[in-house]
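worker-3 :: picked USP domain-containing protein
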Amino acid sequence: MIPGLREALASRKAFVDETSESSEGVGAGATGTVGARRGSKFANVSFVEKSATGYTGLVNQGATCYLNSFLQMLFMTPDFRRSLFEWKFDEAEHGDARRCLAYQLQRLFAQLQLTTRGAVRTSDLTLSFGWTGSQAFVQHDVQECMTHVMDHLSMTAVGSSLGHHVMEEQQGRMRRYVLCHGCGHLSASAEVFGSVQVPIKGFANLQAALQGLVAPEVLDGTSKYNCSGCESEQAASLGRYFDGAALPLVLTLQLVRFDFDLATMQRRKLSDELPFPAELDMATLLQPPADAVARAAEAGSGEAFEAAAEAAAAAGAGEGTVYDLFAVMLHTGGAHGGHYSAFLKELRPAEEARGARWLKFNDSSVSEMSASDIRRAFGGTREAPWDPAATAALAREQQEDEAAAPDAGSAPAGAESGAKAGSSQGAAGAAVACASSASAGAAASGGDAASQAVPAATRHAYMLVYRRRSAARPPPPVADTCVPASLQAEVEADNDEFRALRKEWLWEREIVRTSVYLPTSEKTVSAAEALAARAPTAGETSAKRRSAPIAFHSSVTAEDATVLAAAALGLIDPSLAPDAGVSPPGATRETGPPATRPPASQRAEPFRFSSREECLQLCRLRRFDALRGVMEAPLGGAASEPLSAQPDPPQSHRPLALEVRASTDTEWAAWSAEALQVMLLQFESDGEGERFAPAVQLTVPSDSLAALRRAAEAATGLHGACRLVRMRGDKAEVLASDSGEEDVSLRLSLKLQPGDSVFVDPTTEGPSPVVRLLESIANEVTISFEPLRPLTELEARGVAADCPGVSEADLHGEELDATACSVQVDQRQTLGELRRAVEGATRATPGTVRVMRPGGFEMKDATKPLAFHGLLGGGKVRLERGRPLTPAEFTLKVVVFRSADEGSPGARPSGPPSAASGAGSEASRFTELGFVTADRETPVPQLKELIAARLSSAAVPIDPTRMRLRERTGRSLAGALLDCRTLAAALSSRIVDGREVVVQTLDHGEALEEGDLLINLRVWHPQEAVLDPAGPEIAVRASTTTEQLRALAAAKLGVPPVAVVMSKVSAFMLRDKAAIANLEAFKLRAGASAEAAGAQAGADALADRPVLYGRRQPADDACIASDPWRLRSGSTVVVKDGRAVETLQDHAGDGGKPAAATHGGTRAEIAFQIFTPQQQREREAEKARRAQEQREAAERAAAEAAKAVSNKPEHSIPGEADLRKFVMLFRGGVTEEGVKAKIKSEGFDEVRTFAKVLENLDMVTGSDE
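worker-3 :: tokens ->
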């Protein structure tokens, strides 16, 4: 390792800022803060003040936009707000204040009127509903919400002005009638309404929709009316009209924008355009049609219609029938969800009506409206003009307002002075709000009204609220004094707290929290020679010395910030540092930076600067790129001015660097934004070795290689006698050009970036030592491994026998280094060089160490580089003792297979197996018994001898002449390895380490030839729906016919060949007995019972039965290796005795899964609900009971777990049987971590047991496991 180089390169690493802040946007609907740190008192608090409109928004709890819009509409209704403030809460009468909806609504309205916050929360109000937190995330309908709240208020405020307003002024009456066409009999009834649902589909505007609402419907055909006058079913007219004697003060119209589409059976939203007027005259809606009045008068039953005419006349002569629009509730979205907002108009007395504004309430945001906003609420998706006839009065009013207004663009009193010019303000808002694009545009510009068009709709008006224009009942003023005194005091206290906290927050957001760095270079003007001699104090790390956190207010000067940075870095006594300004005015002041350094009395050396003046003369602050490690522009502006007055003031998370010069005679380093900043490291070589000097920040004035060379020579003093070297990845290159260095661009040609390192080589001829050293360091990697352990006597004997030229004495005489666990090598070296490095580090005998992959097999090609073996960049390997293998040698896994007919070919256990038997038990027939090493050209007979020797050492003697070697596919056997072939030729695919070779023992020797097939027979028992877990295996020629295969199968089953039914199955069928039962080949035809007939009759019945599922009947002379059989070695043929009765035809299978149930329909609607106090108490009691049950269950479970742990035996070493299992897992390729996890899961001592596994790696087991 080259001294100084790693430290120089490590100095380039960016340090993580030690301070952490969270920044959340503040604006419309914001609930977070700017600069609020996590865990501080500013977190989750909105410091937005009340908007310039003078109104406060409501915070959305999750999906409560519908509630916010409704509440703002109620607040903007002065009649309701005043009556709510006049209502008095009585705990004896109304119960707990937290559960009283009227009181919580009163508190909320008091906050909306008096608070200085930009938005207030509705959580206390929804808590009075009896809601939990989850219910605030369910969106409801605003009309449904209004109905439930008004009903609850009417029950709570009985006998008060609030109750009167809810019951009388918010509700009206509508008359329904049925007029018989036969006798003229009139039947009338009345109904009270709080809101009117107005169908909009098919109507051009609101007036037409209301006329359609009251238009009579003819009852005829199957819907005839059973008239009491005629005493028979007659055609009749069904209609309704508004009762002029009971018109509400506040008229709420709900536009029916949601319906159910019978074609798609889904809910849908109607986006039809529906213009609505600002003035609505109800006079035409107070009486039935004239023809109905005349017909009733002729029949002498028109008393109800006469009363309606009188009420209409009285209403027109009294308060009037004209209503003014003041609220538009909007819905944006689709039929199953969206967002609610509201356009609301200030309701003022007639003398102040010209100053009324239209405002947009969108949760936390409140703003004045533009003309286009209200027009876009009409709905529709096309550009269309407003109906001029419907808004002529509004257009005239707008013209009058504009003529009277001195400045159309000026903001009203209390509004933000920076309001956008041209926006509708003041009295003009009333006309702008509802003027169409045609009328309003024509009035403003003098153009043709019909030529004006509105943009495509983005929102849809969902509910319209009108107030009756009445001189007797003008909108009452609601002064601040109307708010109950107790609530005034409560809100004022909250305002004081908010103002104080906001003042502190405003101060806090101006605090700069960042890190300051001290460059560690010795040969740059920013790090003087005197600083290089300073050693870290006791307990101080180099990282802390190079950087430190710093915090100061933006009002401090650049000089103060410089001294604070020097104190933070330990260059000056902190007592000399000025006030950092991190405490707000009036709070306890903090002097200097945080106490990260020991007091001066405990320091081992004096401070670098003894006074403030010396520090300011030799230090200055610069911006710092911590990622590249280079200093950037110095702080601009005058040193005595506040930092906030600078063109680019310091900001949080933007690091700074303290630049220090040796003396006042040294000029500050010049800075240019266009110049390239690189780090220069000079190579030094002497008798003590080779090293690099600390990095120097070098400014290259122009973008050319020649300029870089001149600057480097000036900085090092090596004029014309050096080479420049740079690193690109793991390659080092000398910077030079044959065509002239003036034309070589540093950025474009050489791809140099700010902060890149350039190394100076003082030699000019021959191979560059800098290139050699840089590449050696760049390619230096660490290979780690577990330390080698001494060999046992048995292991040493095996290794000596396997490694030529190595004796047991050599192995016993080893003095292994038990601490060696890694080596450092060049990743360009070969595997052979890595082996020698490992043998040298561990002091193992040469030629006896095998380098293995972690959890895998050996890396064998010693001529390939480490990258070929996946060790690029270092890594971890596993070491084993033994002769290293060549690339032509492979490690094969030996697996012993137990045949079902072992010892008695063709025999089957008496009776069918149990239903539990299946393919799952087939896996237990394979037993892994270790590994053997063989060459790819090893003949198969020789491989059998190697395997026999291996099994003999494992106490499983097998005669090689009675051994059959097979391949394995999953849990099934495949083709056999023929004796006439080599290992590579006998296997069906490429040979790799870990390839399994299955050993199958035979009762006698055999000689398979080319073309022989090994077919596995599995017996199906139809009565029990059970498949034998294993069956006999037969060797046949590839030319065997269907008839010959049936005869062989019959011999195995002991039944006549004509009764044998066969079917070829796939691997997945063997794991699913339902698939076997449903094979067409195994289904009996009706009337084909072999029991009633003889064997020959059964054979005849089976003669035309298909043998293969889904295929045609193969001929008896069909070859099994061809279509439709296409059998291969290892194929499975399921057979059964065709004479058995199939009792489970079309068996569905125990493990079959039913088809997933499907259902249609739309999302279930969740009803809006307000719980009474009694219901809330019952819900809380039920919740507490469930919580108690959960706690008791958890305590019982913990007690049982503790009891189980106390009764668990201590961890110990496993017995011989368990140890064999762990050894086989490790030898079978399971990683060390996997084996340790298995040991731990079975309750054994992890460390000691694994050590035993390593000591007994040659242990194998002959058990069935």
